[in-house]
Amino acid sequence: MNTTHQVVADTFYQESDRILAALIGTVRDFELAEDALQDALLVALERWPVDGVPHNPSAWITTTARHKAIDRLRRASTLARKQALLQELVELEAQGGTEEMEDHAIPDERLKLMFTCCHPALALEAQVALTQKGFSPRASPLDFNPRGEACVAVECRFIEHVLAC
After folding, report:
1. Is there a contact between 36 and 66 (Cβ–Cβ < 8 Å)?
2. What is the pLDDT of residue 57?
3. Is 73 in contact with 52 (CB distance < 8 Å)?
4. How far apart are the C-alpha atoms of 15 and 110, rounded to whole Å?
5. Domains of the chain
6. For residue 46, what are the contacts with CB-CB under 8 A and spacing of at least 6?
7. 43, burial (CB in 10 Å: exposed 0-12, middle 13-18, buried 19+)
8. pLDDT at residue 100, rounded to an integer
9. Rounded distance between C-alpha atoms, residue 106 and residue 119, angstroms
10. 162 exposure class (CB count in 10 Å sphere: 0-12, 13-18, 19+)
11. pTM for the full model?
């Protein structure tokens, strides 16, 4: 076993109970804390041979595990929100049958979309392009950028990230 793996193993044997207790205190979920600790150890095994062993390995593992736990909680929260929305849509469709759903049944998110498209982190051209794309249903992709550049894809990923939060 090389030295990096040995440091990870030693850190786990010496500090795992302290790290696990800190995580359980933070996330209030024993199973989530254990999974996050295991994920952090895997990340340590992947990164430390490349980046080197940190000055304080137990603190690094604790921080990484806490970030992993927070990521899992965020994903679970996002999934729960999306499942609830889908359930509402299924119920509305079941109530209405083949009839069209009422206008007030689906919340109007256009203002949120407009503010997201005009986020100050985006270049002005990208803001204009995304706003046109979002609010001009018949616009072509060539209309989005006056220079004909293909910059919309990167900004679309940004928009998807912002909307997911």
Report:
1. yes
2. 95
3. no
4. 50
5. 3-79 (1.10.1740), 108-164 (no CATH)
6. none
7. middle
8. 57
9. 24
10. middle
11. 0.56
Q: How far apart are CA 31 and CA 39, in angstroms?
A: 12
Alpha helices in the chain (DSSP H): 3-27, 30-51, 57-96, 110-117, 124-135, 152-164
Quote the CA–CA distance of 165 and 112 in Å, as a whole number.
12
Token reading at 136: 């001009």
Look up residue 40 and give its amino acid: A
Contacts of 152 (CB under 8 A, 6+ apart): 126, 129, 130, 133, 141, 144, 145
How far is Cα 79 from Cα 149, in angstroms, rounded to an integer?
A: 35
From first to last of its 165 residues, the chain has per-residue pLDDT tens of: 678 899 999 999 999 999 999 999 999 999 999 999 999 999 999 999 999 999 999 999 999 999 999 999 999 999 999 999 999 888 888 876 545 555 555 567 777 887 888 888 888 888 888 787 777 666 555 455 555 555 555 555 556 655 665
What tokens does 11 get?
């850190």
**How many angstroms separate the Cα of 73 from the Cα of each of 25, 31, 128, 130, 160?**
15, 12, 34, 30, 19
Residue 127 pLDDT = 82
